[in-house]
Design a protein that fits this description.
Blueprint: H1 10-18, H2 24-36, H3 41-67, H4 76-79, H5 96-120, H6 125-142, H7 159-173, H8 201-214, H9 235-253, H10 259-272, H11 275-278, H12 280-289, H13 305-315, E1 319-324, E2 327-333, H14 334-347, E3 359-360, H15 362-379, H16 383-398, E4 410-411, H17 425-428, H18 430-434, H19 439-455, H20 458-461, H21 475-487, H22 491-504, E5 507-510, E6 513-516, H23 521-532, H24 537-543, E7 552-555, E8 561-569, E9 572-579, E10 587-591, E11 598-600, E12 608-610, E13 617-620, E14 627-633
Antiparallel strand pairs: 1-2, 3-4, 5-6, 7-10, 8-9, 9-14, 10-13, 11-12, 11-14
Length: about 625
């Protein structure tokens, strides 16, 4: 195991600053009061932030009274009460227009700092900008921009208290989240669970888009999209969801095929360990947690560790190697990653973990917990059983609003959950992963989604931005909602989403590969998940136990042989393949057969084959169209 030296977090530093100050008795009294109200953690954190802001306004007012006689033109205390407030006194003077422009510019700059905090976890940006604006306004006034002196009038001092009063009223009026009780045991829109058929010809062409990227040399990322490494278009998410989609295809269409699927998963796991995909954490950890550690696994950062745990559990990976060209590899087993995450959940104040510094995303937590549950199934551990109830309670309490809708994200530092864009997909997509953890709660959430879809305008409900590449299309919204709808058994919504996806982002074919010009790779992966799965597909995948190795397709050259179906039947194998190039004559290798036993193949040119002492057999087959091979042991 890797030893990690802890460094002080922002919260611990913040706590040290409070201890020993005159505000400690007031802070302790307020904290006890909030705990006595039995409010959620987020509600209590919000109250603390308002208390700190009130103290800041009071201290600034006192400081202004103390220094105004000595420094009559200073506006530094005023500037600390509200971002850019130091420019307000000059609005009453000769340079009112310039002062007003500077005030608006200050608000814009502070808004950008808040956006930077959200987008990159940079918790330092908002307070530094706020203080910087206060000092900037003070310097401008000292240079003579102010029209008056000695206090500058009372009205600029009202903006801070007004903002505090408005925020406090909203805080007091906010309704607590009620415990959700499942009403809909089986939704009326659920389709029956039908057995799978082989993939269609078009389906295999869509699969090739992901296989082409997964099976390329591990050090290259051709066909992946590079936008940024901090938000939803990050390269790591493309790798994660490509791996999820391939796991869906194999589990639900070709569970008896290792072949290219295992090779693809192995290469994707190598890619996710590439330093280029996790080097962002050094920056985020520094400016978000005040820590210099670059390792993305030990603390927080479930947007990497949690997503990768699910990738490993679904794809069959046992060891993650963090590597770079100039540094030795650091390794984590799936068991170690899952154990580290589980320990953090047991100690989490909110019951949910920060995905990035000081930001909680319910969706990230659902994906992470699906990874914990899937790891339990693979490893035979029982972490999920002990975490299930407190986690699901926290999802309802801290991850939803009073009306039961999912929040997009919440600041763990302040407790506030700002409204966020995204449309209906922000409510629909979490159901895909929630169903693997709590089908009852997922059904109730999907019922609300279905009500909105039945009553609202789809073009307004679906956000016209593809979060996978920030392009202007509804591709990711349609694909993600379709994947969730299939998981929930709602074929009507899934089919309509896929129809609209084809209508707005038409398919194109190039050398036997189908893709959508304006859709992100992330959207393509989600579409493949929707087309490959069925009701409770992820739930089954997350809960499955390791299978004993029976008859299977061990290897097949890609793209000569494209696997449409591979399932075990009795003691044999039912395989359907098609060529990926003209005049393909791939050599197939089978494993898990009964040693030295003869099998019928169902082929006229080679009706029989014989397994060797290790249960392996080779078969070369000519492909001009799709072909079905059935291995039946001869008694």
């Amino acid at each position: 195991m890797n030893s990690v030296t802890p460094s002080p977090s922002l919260r611990s530093v913040f706590s040290v600053r409070i201890v020993g100050t005159p505000f400690l008795p007031l802070y302790s009294t307020m904290q006890s009061y909030l705990q006595g109200l039995n409010w959620s953690i987020s509600k209590g954190r919000q109250g603390r932030v308002l208390l700190v802001y009130a103290a800041l306004i009071i201290v600034s007012a006192i400081a202004n009274c103390v220094v105004s006689g000595t420094f009559p033109n200073t506006v530094l205390p005023l500037g600390l009460t509200f971002p850019g407030a130091g420019f307000l006194p000059a609005i009453a003077g000769d340079q009112a227009q310039l002062a007003f422009i500077l005030f608006l510019a200050s608000l814009s700059l502070f808004g950008f700092a808040l956006l930077l905090w959200f987008a990159t976890g940079n918790v330092l940006a908002p307070p530094l900008v706020w203080v910087g604006l206060a000092f900037g306004a003070d310097n401008v006034h000292l240079l003579g921009m102010a029209a008056t002196d000695a206090g500058h009038g009372i009205w600029p001092w009202l903006i801070g208290p007004i903002a505090l009063i408005v925020a406090t009223l909203g805080w007091l009026r906010a309704k607590p989240v009620k415990t959700v009780k499942c009403i809909y045991s089986v939704p009326c829109f659920a389709s029956p669970r039908l057995p799978f058929e082989p993939m269609s010809h078009d389906h295999s062409k869509r699969l090739r888009l992901l296989l082409d990227r997964a099976l390329q040399p591990v050090e290259t990322f051709n066909g992946f999209e590079r936008r940024d490494q901090f938000q939803t278009a990050a390269l790591r998410y493309q790798v994660n969801f490509t791996a999820y989609a391939l796991a869906f295809v194999r589990e639900h269409r070709a569970p008896a095929a290792k072949a290219s699927f295992f090779d693809a998963q192995e290469r994707l796991l190598h890619k996710i360990g590439d330093k280029r995909l996790w080097s962002y954490w050094r920056l985020e950890n520094a400016w978000g947690n005040m820590r210099l550690a670059a390792d993305p696994i030990p603390n927080q950062n479930i947007m990497y560790s949690g997503f990768t745990a699910l990738q490993m559990a679904l794809g069959g990976g046992d060891e993650l190697h963090l590597h770079s060209a100039n540094a030795p590899s650091r390794s984590y087993s799936l068991n170690e990653i899952a154990d580290r995450i589980a320990r953090q959940y047991r100690a989490a104040a909110y019951g949910l973990l920060d995905c990035e510094p000081n930001w909680i995303y319910p969706l990230c937590n659902l994906i992470t917990m699906a990874g914990i549950k899937a790891a339990d199934a693979r490893l035979g551990s029982d972490r999920w059983e002990g975490l299930a109830k407190p986690f699901l309670d926290a999802v309802v309490r801290e991850g939803m609003r009073a009306d039961g809708s999912f929040i997009a994200f919440r600041s763990s530092l302040t407790g506030f959950a700002p409204p966020a864009p995204g449309g209906i997909v922000m409510q629909a997509f979490p159901c895909l992963f929630l169903n693997a953890l709590s089908p009852e709660l997922a059904q109730q959430q999907w019922h609300k989604v279905r009500q909105r879809l039945d009553l609202g305008s789809w073009r307004h409900l679906f956000w016209p931005v593809d979060v996978g590449n920030y392009g202007f299309s509804r591709a990711s919204s349609y694909a993600a909602t379709a994947a969730a709808a299939v998981e929930m058994g709602d074929r009507a919504v899934a089919d309509e989403c896929l129809r609209r996806l084809e209508e707005e982002c038409p398919s194109c074919e190039n050398e036997g590969v189908i893709h959508r010009e304006n859709a992100s790779l992330w959207a393509h992966a989600l579409e493949l998940m929707a087309r490959s799965s069925r009701r409770d597909g992820l739930r089954d995948l997350v809960s499955r136990r390791p299978e004993t190795c029976g008859p299977h397709l061990a290897s097949a050259p890609y793209p000569d042989a494209l696997i449409l179906q591979a399932v075990t039947k009795n003691r044999g194998l039912d395989l359907t393949i098609e060529p990926g190039r003209l005049d393909a004559r791939p050599q197939l290798e089978f494993g898990g057969l009964m040693p030295e036993r003869h099998y019928r193949t169902g082929l006229t040119e080679q009706p029989y084959l014989r397994a060797d002492r290790e249960g392996r057999a080779m078969l070369r087959v000519a492909l001009s169209d799709h072909r079905r091979i059935t291995l039946d042991p001869i008694v």
